[in-house]
Specification:
Blueprint: E1 10-19, E2 22-31, E3 35-39, H1 46-54, E4 61-66, E5 69-72, E6 87-90, H2 102-112, H3 117-130, H4 146-158, E7 164-168, H5 176-192, E8 196-200, H6 204-210, E9 213-218, E10 221-226, H7 228-233, H8 238-244, E11 247-254, E12 257-260, E13 263-266, E14 273-279, E15 285-287, E16 297-308, E17 313-317, E18 323-327, H9 329-335, E19 342-347, E20 352-356
Parallel strand pairs: 3-8, 3-9, 6-7, 7-8
Antiparallel strand pairs: 1-2, 1-4, 4-5, 9-10, 11-12, 11-14, 12-13, 14-20, 15-19, 16-17, 16-19, 17-18
């Protein structure tokens, strides 16, 4: 007889809360051993979601459940205190105690949970060694870099053997030279932790490098959730398209043409009705004069902004079909673009990806 399978431990979020002007409504599940990244514009509710899971904000209705047990059942339901939830929380600003050494910061939570001073310090040393900072055990927070302080905060959270690990923009306060190393180390520690993992990501690169799945919050609602590939290939909102570096148009397709609020795009004719059309900025060609040849989509547009990037120039265009083009430095030298200049835009129909809205 085959033994019964043990159900995977899952965090189930189905709640609503009001925090000032923000109304947050969440319906989401995160499995044990999975890293979920929350992304979204400022004020979308990302940190509020973490605070609710940690028990630092109460929900107004609905519930937060872990392995079927209610951590928060709303005003009339059960409520588990933050200290009893088994949550490790790494805050954006670390919240290390300035008067304690790195060693004693990591040992602090263990002492609060009844460990002797010697036992707590022994475990703290072990965690400092795991995050590569044992040599900084006697340093106080002001003697640490941003990346080192973040590692100390992570060690303090993991030392308590939590069931949930929450990280609020763990790379936001780290300088560019340290970000790559810390991101790699953080990914390793996240994969070694077998509980539920949720992090608020500061950039798309951080989210995509660290997460198994991404959820996008806008205006207190989850507007899209899926794997990195799904998010990149089929963005559902303008914010998501900007996040992954694509141009997005919402319109109605009929007979191979998408009507986008008075303008139109010729597209591969595989969908009818409401659609989302995406175009990579590198697929947008710019000309000083109207081009001749095969492009099906040609129009004139004003240059709104010029934004130098690592290996290209990002050209923001206005008009009826606002979008971003990426051109090489050599192309910019030939075009001599300037803000408010009119240029001709060409996009091949085959370069436009169309999906049902």
């Amino acid at each position: 007889m085959t033994p019964a399978m043990t159900p995977a431990k899952t965090l189930s979020l189905s709640f609503a809360l009001q925090r000032g002007a923000l109304g947050l409504e969440v319906d989401l599940e995160v499995a044990r051993g999975e890293t979920l990244a929350l992304v979204g514009p400022n004020g979308a509710g990302k940190t509020s979601l973490l605070l609710a899971v940690a028990g630092l904000l109460r929900v107004d209705q609905g519930s937060i459940r872990l392995d079927g047990r209610a951590l928060d059942g709303g005003p009339a339901g059960p409520f588990v205190a933050p200290t009893d939830r088994g949550v490790g929380f790494v805050f954006q600003d670390h919240l290390l105690f300035p008067h304690l050494t790195a060693l004693d910061n990591v040992a602090f939570g263990l002492r609060c949970h009844g460990e002797s001073r010697a036992a707590a310090r022994a475990q703290a040393r072990s965690w400092l060694e795991r995050v590569g900072l044992l040599s900084h055990a006697a340093h106080r927070p002001h003697q640490l870099s941003g990346g080192q302080a973040q590692r100390i905060a992570l060690a303090r959270a993991l030392a308590l053997s939590p069931r949930l690990l929450l990280l609020d923009e763990p790379l936001a306060a780290v300088d560019a030279s340290s970000r790559l190393d810390l991101r790699r180390d953080l990914r390793r520690h996240l994969h070694a932790f077998d509980g539920v993992r949720i992090l608020v990501a500061h950039t798309a690169v951080d989210a995509f490098a660290l997460a198994d799945r991404v959820a996008v919050l806008e205006g207190g609602r989850i507007v899209q959730s899926g794997t990195v590939a799904a998010i990149c290939n089929q963005p559902r909102t303008r914010y998501v398209a900007d996040l992954v570096g694509l141009n997005l148009f919402r319109g109605t397709a009929k007979a191979g043409v998408v009507d986008v609020g008075g303008a139109s795009l010729v597209v591969p004719g595989t969908h009818e009705g409401p659609v989302l059309a995406t175009v990579h900025p590198r697929a947008v060609a710019l000309f000083r004069a109207r081009p001749v040849g095969s492009p099906r989509n040609v129009w004139s547009a004003p240059v709104v902004a010029l934004e130098p990037a690592l290996d290209c120039l990002r050209v923001r265009l206005g008009g009826a079909l606002p979008l971003v083009a990426e051109i090489t430095p050599a192309a910019q030298q030939d075009l001599q673009l300037a803000v408010d200049q009119q240029v001709w835009v060409a996009v091949k129909a085959t370069e436009i990806a169309v999906n049902p809205a």
